[in-house]
Specification:
alpha+beta, single chain, 29% strand, seven-stranded parallel sheet, globular, six-stranded antiparallel sheet
Length: 621
């Protein structure tokens, strides 16, 4: 990587290609912080087989059924609706001239990139029988340059066949799987599986040398660092121009232009955000849940002659996060984290959102219920959810989907996938905390096993190495090794008893110095109470079913009716509000999810009682 010394230049956008405004996009673009003017959405009806594993199918297959991508075959929305085991599935669709043109393919953008948002778990891809590549990891994106494969037929109207094989062993507990059950039917806290494609597949045309990756990092209250990765074949002598503006006020904030070195492919550019007023006005630009201000940016790759070679639009938020003196800090000020556990699961589409609009509605509902944060639980969520979190304003805890075994293979798989997830999501201002492990899943003997302790510490430390700007939780819930925030899971259903557990500093010392609510130690492996913030990051989970009763429905406690349900939730929140040391909380959970009928909302996202009553219980006002 090279660090560039930028020079401030006058804004000049006349020669840049027309680009969408990133901070005001409609939420359809699959990569919301790096937009180009054209892309081809390949979601929709594909051919599908799950009745065998024939290598001849790499060129296409007969006797196929239709599946609606990106919904998993276990779901109703896919049109397959077969919730059993699917060790191997096959997909196929055609690529036509219309697809290439929609992607923007042409003289100025001759290369074609095929993108997959997520395929669970191991994907292999062919075009016209030619092997394109393979990817392992069920929650992270991957791409292939398919230009040469699509150029084998000189006929511009040729129809090509794209084939995807997805392998997802339902019994392999070393795969990061989150809440996906390894039993055929859901049990306890685990849900139906997701096999194969579950996020958008899309095609994008790019120049021979292109902007391949962006990352925004907050350096301080008025400076960001942009990391740019250049893909493809460079000619030499290129320059990079970054223009930043606050669209809400139609205010130009910065233009930086830098010369790229000829040997590296990754570069850092410092972008100072200066306003023509005193320092007090800088606060107007800061991102918070109450004022989620986003700054638009255009990034242009210029050739040696100064002509634009490639251009993308992006956005970032100016904000800092940290911990100090038992307090969670946002922009240097204490901030009470009022969060809800979000499983990101829908009845008819499972972990794939039923529509792009549903991702926006999820964020809106979280805010309407009185929360300022969401803990995306055991799932690396669709980037478009994070866009709406950025734009509408909620804090997000980014969490890894856990594996359920401890072995060298399990360590390698989770570490690799988690590193990819952090790289994908590090630019989102809404993400304020990283959670690489939960409740000792995959490290069940962490209390006594030095190897498992070392693994948990290394996961947290690697996360800090990749992103030193956010707090990291080594193991959410209990048995922390080196967490920046001590998080506790406690499903005590009685408000006064919960209040006593978290009353004051004496209660805090007892809690952190001994056995916690789930009969697990809070600190292990030599970890010390160093005054970290303490948060109650799972509690509540009160069962109430106002409509048709599920026989297998359950919660950690149960309410007799709507009034009792609201009273129980209010008493739990009153206990949290009475604590002298809790820096935040996370209620379990946002929605009913299969047999877990302990959500604030029904599975269809309708409120169980008038939403104002829930909000009053959550906020105390």
């Amino acid at each position: 990587m090279s660090t560039l010394d930028g020079t401030v230049a006058a804004p000049d956008t006349a020669s840049a290609p027309a680009l969408p405004l990133a901070s005001r996009q409609d939420g359809s673009y699959p990569r919301p912080q790096m937009l180009r003017a054209s892309w081809a959405d390949l979601d929709g009806t594909w051919s599908f087989r799950n009745d065998g594993d024939d290598t001849a199918w790499r060129t296409g297959f007969p006797d196929a059924r239709d599946i609606v991508v990106p919904f998993p075959p276990e779901s109703v929305a896919s049109g397959i609706d077969e919730p059993g085991f699917h060790p191997v599935v096959w997909y196929s669709r055609t690529l036509t001239r219309a697809d290439l043109e929609a992607a923007g393919h042409g003289t100025a953008a001759p290369r074609l990139a095929l993108h997959f948002g997520a395929v669970d778990y191991r994907a292999s891809v062919w075009i016209d029988g030619q092997f394109i590549g393979q990817h392992e990891g069920g929650h992270t994106p991957f791409s292939f340059d398919v230009t040469d494969a699509l150029a084998t037929d000189p006929d511009p109207d040729a129809v090509h066949t794209l084939v995807v094989r997805a392998e997802d062993d339902p019994h392999d507990l070393t795969q990061p799987r989150g809440k996906q059950d390894w039993h055929e039917d859901p049990h306890a806290i685990w849900y139906r599986r997701t096999t194969g494609i579950w996020q958008t597949v899309w095609l994008e045309a790019v120049p021979t040398a292109s902007i391949g990756y962006l990352r925004w990092t907050n350096i301080d209250h008025a400076t960001v660092r942009l990391t740019v990765r250049i893909a493809g074949q460079r000619s030499g002598g290129e320059r990079l121009r970054v223009d930043a503006r606050w669209d809400e006020r139609d205010e130009h904030l910065a233009t930086i232009e830098s010369t790229l070195g000829d040997t590296a492919d990754e570069f850092d550019v410092l972008v100072p955000i200066a306003r023509q007023s005193n320092g007090q006005a800088e606060d107007e630009l800061h991102w918070t849940p109450d004022a989620p201000r986003l700054i638009d940016a255009s990034i242009t790759l210029l050739g040696a002659d100064g002509a634009p070679v490639d251009a993308v639009s992006s956005y970032f938020g100016l904000r800092t996060v940290g911990v100090d003196g038992g307090t969670f800090l946002l922009n240097g000020r204490s901030h009470d984290v009022r969060s809800v556990l979000n499983q990101g699961y829908w009845p008819d589409s499972h972990i794939a959102a039923p529509s792009r609009e549903a991702l926006r509605r999820e964020v809106e509902l979280i805010k309407e219920l009185g929360f300022n944060a969401a803990r995306n639980h055991q799932k690396i969520e669709d980037p478009r959810f994070l866009y709406w979190a950025d734009r509408l304003g909620i804090l997000v805890w980014g969490e890894a989907p856990g594996a359920y075994a401890f072995s060298p293979r399990a360590v390698q798989r989770l570490m690799r996938e988690w590193m990819d997830a952090v790289e994908r999501d590090a630019s989102h201002p809404s993400i304020v905390t990283w959670v690489p492990a939960n409740e000792s899943w995959g490290v069940q003997h962490i209390a006594t096993d030095p190897a498992q302790q070392a693994y948990a510490r290394s996961l947290a430390d690697v996360t800090r190495a990749l992103d030193p700007t956010r707090p990291v939780i080594s193991n959410d819930g209990w048995e922390h090794t080196n967490s920046d925030i001590v998080t506790i899971h406690d499903y005590e259903g009685d408000g006064p008893r919960l209040a006593a557990t978290y009353a004051d500093d004496t209660a805090r010392a007892v809690l952190l110095g001994g056995i916690g609510p789930a009969d697990r130690r809070i600190l292990v492996g030599g970890a010390l109470d160093e005054g970290q913030p303490v948060m109650l990051t799972e509690f509540g989970g009160v069962n109430y079913q106002p409509g048709v009763q599920r026989e297998d429905g359950w919660g950690y406690t149960s309410a007799s009716d709507g009034d009792d349900w609201v009273a129980r939730i209010t008493a739990l929140y009153d206990a949290i509000r009475a604590s002298s040391f809790l820096a935040g909380s996370c209620y379990t959970q946002l929605t009913d999810t299969m047999q877990e009928t302990n959500g604030l909302l029904n599975a269809d996202r309708s409120p169980k009682v008038p939403i104002e009553q829930i909000r009053r219980a959550v906020t105390g006002r």
